[in-house]
Write a structure and sequence with these properties.
Residues 8-106 form the HTH araC/xylS-type domain. Keywords: DNA-binding, Transcription, Transcription regulation. By secondary structure, this protein is an alpha+beta fold. The chain folds into two domains: 3-105, Arc Repressor Mutant, subunit A (Orthogonal Bundle), CATH 1.10.10.60; 130-281, Regulatory factor, effector binding domain (Multidrug-efflux Transporter 1 Regulator Bmrr, Chain A, Alpha-Beta Barrel), CATH 3.20.80.10. Helices cover 42% and strands 21% of the residues. It is built from ten helices and eight strands. The chain has an eight-stranded antiparallel beta sheet. The protein starts with a helix and ends with a strand. The model has no long low-confidence stretch (mean pLDDT 90).
């Protein structure tokens, strides 16, 4: 299967088991992806997390059943994965704008999210600036934190980590230490096991790790290096989406499975002329 077909297989599995107690590990297995790679690819292509997709679909089906049956609200709450009618009512109102009790009498429209079908844009309307380079292994020095993939805690925790690093001035220290083959400060995700990742904020540095910093070895790789132009975070998010929806399906390259790099300069992050890079190991 292509990676698009693999992703669709995982989505179909979610749809077939919407009322079951799904785990991200089992979902990712359907696509033959690691948990982190599946979670990230899904979010890039759909703009929502796996957990949010499941919540939206379950509440869509719950609304359908609520308005077309006499099933008790408490039974619906448990059927669609909520521990109590109160939790169900709160989530239902957040999506539909009315409580379950009000929905039974409601004559207006409720918000419906349809089953997802992955489609890849092969037009390539917007050019991508990319080069393929080969690099020997090199060292990153920086700070690291472990994040759980359960309930997608990493999606919340990583931006907070960047805020802390920038607020403490650690980013300035990293820029001064930068003397390796990649220019700038980098963000790196390293998969640890099915339930967690190690996230690094660091810089390419030759020599021993200075006090207070750890070191990470990046293996020798062939890299696809993409230019990113524009303010953060929008420009970076747009570039990732274009890479996965256009470049990978048409390039003939596959992800090599080792850590990717997001490379940031010390320019103003809100500048429309900001230059950044995405480094993806390919084969």
């Amino acid at each position: 299967m292509t990676w698009v077909e693999s992703l669709q297989a995982a989505i179909d599995y979610m749809e077939d088991h919407l009322l079951d107690d799904l785990s991200i590990e089992n979902i990712a297995q359907q696509a033959n992806f690691s948990v982190f790679h599946f979670q990230r690819t899904f979010a890039i292509l759909t703009d929502i997390s796996v957990g949010e997709y499941l919540r939206r679909r379950r509440l869509t089906l719950a609304a359908y059943e609520l308005t077309r049956s006499n099933t008790k609200i408490i039974d619906l709450a448990y059927r669609y994965g909520y521990d109590s009618p109160e939790a169900f009512s709160k989530a239902f109102r957040r999506q539909h704008g009315v409580t379950p009790s009000e929905a039974r009498k409601y004559t207006g429209t409720l918000k419906s999210y349809n089953r997802l079908v992955v489609q890849v844009n092969m037009k390539g309307a917007e050019p991508m600036q990319v080069k393929i380079v080969e690099r020997n292994g090199f060292q990153i020095v920086g700070v690291k934190r472990d994040f759980s993939l359960v309930n997608e805690e990493n999606l919340v925790g990583i931006p907070k980590m960047w805020d802390k690093i920038n607020g403490e001035g650690t980013d300035e220290r990293l820029f001064k230490l930068n003397n390796g083959p990649v220019e700038g400060v980098v963000g790196v995700c390293v998969e640890k096991d099915s339930g967690s990742i190690e996230y690094w904020i660091g810089t390419a540095h030759e020599g021993s790790a200075p006090d207070g910093l750890s070191n990470l070895e990046i293996p020798a790789s062939k890299w696809a290096v993409f230019e990113v132009h524009g303010p953060m975070p929008d420009a970076m998010q747009k570039a990732w989406k274009q890479i996965f929806s256009e470049w990978f399906p048409s390039s003939g390259y596959k992800h090599a499975g080792t850590p990717e790099l997001e490379v940031y300069s010390d320019e103003n992050p809100s500048s429309p002329d900001l230059y950044s890079e995405i480094w993806i190991p390919v084969k």
